[in-house]
Amino acid sequence: MLAGLVCLGAGVSPGCTRQRNTGETTMDPRRAVRIMVNKDGVISLNGRTVTIDELKNGLLVAGRTSGSVVWYYRENSTGKPAPNSMLVFNAILESKLPVRLSTKSDFSDVAEPGGGSQ
Questions:
Q1: Alpha helices of the chain — where are they, by DSSP H?
Q2: What is the pLDDT of residue 20?
Q3: CATH number (domain holding residue 51)
């Protein structure tokens, strides 16, 4: 599994800040683009079902807003992903926005390497 928090680009992205003395990175939830993929591959962007093209457009728009971040959740994350899951994750990576992976559909945790969460 990928690290729970990915801040892409050189240094820390705008929306991604380092906490003093902990080395931990946090993201502003007010700027979060929430993306979910269910076990059947249905894509949701901020609570609305979208196509992959609509998702890419949403990420493009978010990329124009300073401090935007992606929160990503995939249902059944330990099982085989639906084909759309890989399309979605590739779109997220292409957006170059910082990403926080979650194991909960309400995005209340951060996924960690090895499958744990905090």
A1: 52-63, 83-95
A2: 37
A3: 3.30.420
Please classify residue 33 by burial: count the beta carbons closer than 10 Å to its beta carbon, then call 0-12 exposed, 13-18 middle and 19+ buried.
Answer: buried
**Residue numbers of the domain that contains 35:** 30-104
Q: How many residues does the chain have?
A: 118
Q: What is the sign, positive or negative, of the torsion defined by CA atoms of 67, 29, 49, 108?
A: positive
- Per the listing, tokens 């995005």 go with 107
Domain count, the chain: 1
Strand order in the sheet with 5-6: 5-6, 99-102, 69-74, 32-37, 43-45, 48-50
Q: What's the pLDDT tens digit per position in 67-116?
A: 999 999 999 888 899 989 999 999 999 999 999 999 889 888 787 665 54
Q: Which two tokens stand for residue 42?
A: 């249905």
The backbone torsions φ and ψ at residue 86, rounded to the nearest 5 degrees and listed phi first, read -70, -40
**pTM of the predicted model as reported, rounded to 2 decimal places:** 0.73
